[in-house]
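$ ./design --mode recover --in tokens.txt
reading tokens...
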């Protein structure tokens, strides 16, 4: 495989990641127009995000197990096609149930996509560079937060929410065509034996701790992030326009965070992961303590953006290292834990919304702090770091 082919493949993976994350989060920015157009309560539209995450969480592991051993490129193309079909159905929906079915299709494809994309990136990586290539692909995630979701929201305001979904579908089909042409096929890997299959993966040293920590960290993050707009508006007295700018700051801060951990994670994976969790906890403390002081709130949001953008790279890199004997099964458990954390965090944030809004960052620390301890216990399971 040539270096040019590797770069083209990684670019395709990053572009598809951008489309998948943008499409996943579109209802957040288009909640009001979807609610008004379909004549349903905003809470029901918001429920689409929770149901989507839980669909991913519940289907990622079994579907990845069922598709184990199938040629990776063919599976990647099939998953991308199903995701695009779900997006087209969402764009064409005239009722809430049809929209929900479209989102369900996207959710089932989403779980398998995330279960294979990191392994695919690692297979395209030169020796010793799997963390860096994973970070390059996850840059698509940061770009979706910085550009995709805001632009989708603006487009929805101009041409309607269906127009925004149509644009997402067009991008998805374009990424599918690019993958067909440019994505290199990687060596076919037969289905793993039972000892390293879906259940066996959880018996690999350190992997259960990483999966548990993933669920706890994402739970803490989305407890706050789901309600970050009222937190900044009501707690820190930012205007609606300023809140939008702060969310852009959050996304932009994630770009250097993703790049930095991509440089460091192959050398000191366990140390970088612990540092990322500590930075996330520190940003939540700063946000909780300084919510009434706008400069501190801005600093906290920026640090939070750096930490959480870096977190999926470090977690996924750790999962691939600890689950090297069954990378797809290990990734599927990671994806399930991540999305259960999203759904659980959104639910927890809703339940806590009756409390003073400034308490959310403090409540988010409840799962984040023990996650640090859980990851600490996996130190012995990590391969000895490369020193270069």
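writing sequence...
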């Amino acid at each position: 495989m040539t270096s040019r082919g590797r770069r083209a493949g990684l670019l395709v993976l990053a572009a598809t990641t951008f489309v998948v994350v943008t499409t996943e989060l579109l209802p957040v920015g288009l909640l009001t127009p979807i609610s008004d157009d379909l004549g349903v309560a905003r809470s029901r539209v918001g429920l689409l995000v929770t149901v989507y995450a839980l669909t991913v969480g519940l289907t990622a592991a079994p579907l990845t197990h069922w598709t184990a051993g199938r040629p990776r490129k063919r599976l990647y193309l099939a998953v991308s096609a199903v995701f695009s079909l779900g997006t087209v159905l969402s764009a064409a929906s005239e009722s809430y149930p049809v929209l929900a079915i479209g989102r369900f299709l996207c959710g089932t494809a989403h779980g398998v996509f995330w279960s294979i994309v990191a392994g695919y990136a690692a297979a395209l990586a030169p020796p010793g560079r799997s963390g860096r290539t994973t970070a390059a692909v996850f840059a698509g995630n940061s770009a979706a937060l910085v550009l995709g979701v805001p632009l989708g929201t603006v487009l929805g305001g101009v041409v309607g929410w269906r127009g925004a979904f149509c644009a997402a579908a067009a991008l998805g089909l374009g990424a599918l065509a690019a993958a067909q042409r440019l994505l290199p096929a990687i060596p076919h890997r037969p289905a793993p034996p039972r000892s390293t299959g879906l259940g066996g993966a959880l018996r690999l040293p350190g992997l259960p701790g990483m999966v548990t920590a993933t669920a706890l960290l994402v739970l803490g993050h989305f407890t706050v992030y789901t309600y970050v707009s009222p937190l900044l508006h009501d707690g820190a007295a930012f205007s609606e326009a300023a809140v939008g700018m702060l969310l852009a700051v959050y996304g932009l801060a994630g770009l250097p965070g993703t790049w930095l951990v991509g440089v460091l994670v192959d050398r000191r994976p366990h140390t970088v992961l612990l540092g990322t969790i500590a930075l996330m906890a520190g940003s939540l403390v700063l946000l909780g303590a300084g919510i009434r002081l706008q400069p501190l709130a801005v600093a906290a949001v920026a640090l939070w953006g750096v930490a959480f953008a870096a977190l999926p790279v470090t977690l996924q890199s750790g999962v691939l290292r600890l689950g090297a004997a069954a990378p797809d099964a290990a990734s599927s458990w990671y994806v399930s834990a991540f999305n259960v954390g999203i759904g659980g965090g959104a639910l927890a944030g809703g339940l806590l919304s009756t409390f003073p809004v400034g308490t959310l960052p403090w409540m988010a620390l409840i799962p984040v702090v023990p996650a640090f301890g859980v990851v600490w216990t996996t130190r012995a399971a990590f391969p000895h770091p490369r020193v270069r």
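exit 0
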